[in-house]
Amino acid sequence: MEADVRSENERIKHLEFIQATIARLGNNVFLIRGWSVTATGVLLAVSVQVDQWRIATLALLIGLGFWALDGFYLRRERMFRRLYDDAALHRPPRVPLFSMDTRPYLSSVPWTGALFSDSVMMVHLPVLTVDVAVACVLAF
Asked: Keywords on this record (predicted)?
């Protein structure tokens, strides 16, 4: 009986570890999106002020980098959510106790799904569109 209680407490602690990781990844995504808008906005303002299309192109490249980073963190978060689901449903062969290994979910969570998800596109597509527009206007 005592072993069952200890085992259940360990399982709950494992779920808390996974949940904390998911929360950190979500916070990172939030920060990445904020930095993306801030960095590209500042570079666009500077490019317009000094009339240099190259700076607007740099803003575009930085925006693409933040988009890729956002997709990376979103994919990792989705893999940890799958790990949490399996651990919560108590599937010991698939998720050993205190395992944080997300490799089994690599094939089920594709990069393209994260990069082109609605939440990512709603932030980065407008930013990149403005970057391209400003670069084109300043170049011609």
From this structure: Membrane, Transmembrane, Transmembrane helix
Please say if the pLDDT value at position 76 is more than 90: yes
- What residue ranges do the domains of the chain occupy? 2-139
pLDDT above 80 (res 6):
no
pLDDT of residue 138: 94
Determine the Cα–Cα distance for residues 20 and 14; give it in Å rounded to an integer. 10
Residue 130, burial from CB neighbour count under 10 angstroms (0-12, 13-18, 19+): middle
For residues 53 and 47, is the Cβ–Cβ distance under 8 A? yes
| pTM metric for this prediction | 0.88
The DSSP-derived string for 30-82 is HHHHHHHHHHHHHHHHHHHHHT-HHHHHHHHHHHHHHHHHHHHHHHHHHHHHH
